[in-house]
Write a structure and sequence with these properties.
Elements lengths: L4 E3 L4 H9 L4 E4 L2 E4 L2 E2 L11 H19 L6 E8 L9 H15 L5 E6 L10 E8 L6
Parallel strand pairs: 5-6
Antiparallel strand pairs: 1-2, 2-3, 3-7, 4-7, 5-7
Helix pairs in contact: 2-3
Length: about 140
């Protein structure tokens, strides 16, 4: 069995490893699991615009996957966590931007996806968090 290899995304991942004591990704063989990625910048600031926050979260997933040797086209499963715009309903903006990003980043690949509404996430201004599983190299299959 392969040994786990842990990764910190350059920038915010290094900071989170030092301050919060967790890694951004783990790779065992070809399988990569990443921790939830928000729409923050390297200083852990969030944009005011929800659409921009979701796009940044996708960019942070991409950065983290690259650190561990994969791309969005290797993703097989997505879990997304959303603080609803309206209680009880995740909302049009969350859904529309998520699907736009899936199409733009994964081409024909359609991974499994679980979308969950939550009352709060790990930072006060955070409205979306994305966690994925990837199989490195599977995009070429």
């Amino acid at each position: 069995m392969s040994q786990p290899e842990f990764f910190a995304t350059p920038g915010y991942g290094d900071r989170q490893l030092a301050e919060m004591r967790y890694s951004q990704a783990v790779r065992v063989g070809d399988r990569i699991e990443i921790s939830g990625q928000g729409g923050w910048d390297d200083d852990l600031h969030f944009p005011a615009d929800l659409e921009e926050e979701i796009v940044r979260a996708f960019e942070n997933v991409e950065r983290t996957l690259a650190t561990a040797g994969a791309t969005w086209r290797d993703v097989i499963a997505v879990n997304s966590y959303h603080v609803p715009e309206t209680p009880g309903f995740i909302g049009e903006v969350h859904n529309r931007v998520m699907v736009e990003q899936f199409r733009a980043r994964m081409g024909d690949r359609a991974p499994i996806w679980t979308e969950i509404g939550v009352p709060a996430l790990g930072a006060p201004k955070m409205r979306v968090e994305i966690r994925v599983t990837a199989i490195a190299g599977s995009a070429r299959v």
